[in-house]
Design brief:
alpha+beta; globular; about 270 residues; 11 helices; GMP Synthetase, Chain A, domain 3
Length: about 270
Amino acid sequence: MSAVKNIIKDNYNTMLLMDYLRTAIKDAGFSHADISKTPTGTRVALHVTRPGIVIGRKGSGIRELTERLATDFGLKNPQISVVEIEKPELSPSVMCTRMASHLERGTAFRRATMWTLKQIMEGGAMGVQITISGKLRGDRSAFEKHTVGVLPRAGHHAEVIVDEDIAHVVTAMGLIGIRIRIAKKEKLIPEFEMIKEKASKDKQSKNGKVDESKKTKVEEVKVDESKKTKVEEVVDDVKVEGVKSETEQIAKDEEKMKDLTTNEDEENALK
């Protein structure tokens, strides 16, 4: 078999593997997987929002997943590692899956779109664009595009800053496609930094020393032990009351989504 055919076969198997992982560990908030071949086997790094669901009790989940990858997808000695996503709102694949789940549950597409835009921008994105197309309202296919913030669309910096993903969902009306593009501030190229920020950095580099008075004031600040214990108790309560899976997260978002006012609600109020 030629090298071109081997590359095509590997890419096809990778596509099938990604489709399987999206459905198998959907409740864990699967984002993407990094696959690399080594002389000893195949390393698979799974990026998810909730690693505990993938690992399972005493590692049972990850053992079953390893056997499945070896038997069904022909991976040689797969070695799976789980990486937790710190900010799920900045992951296009996670947000595509959540928005698709909202549409499957019967949420109006504009309400789901506005809620997703709000969540991504509150998560710290520089800009976001959501394109939804398909059988949205009637028999005819249509599409809508919603953009918030600053989103580069062309050039090398757009390829570096912007991440995107596409998801499809089957509803009662028909097939609907979702495309989310997110611009991240963390990947901003130094050429596009603000002039004031550059000037302040230059001053600090020239001076080379921090003001001693400010330094002593910072060192003198101490945290009250009673307040610290209260804060720790609140954090523990939040962890206990937090959601355990993506299904619970979506159900919780649906309750909050009811209070969201869309453009349609404003138009109906003016009639």
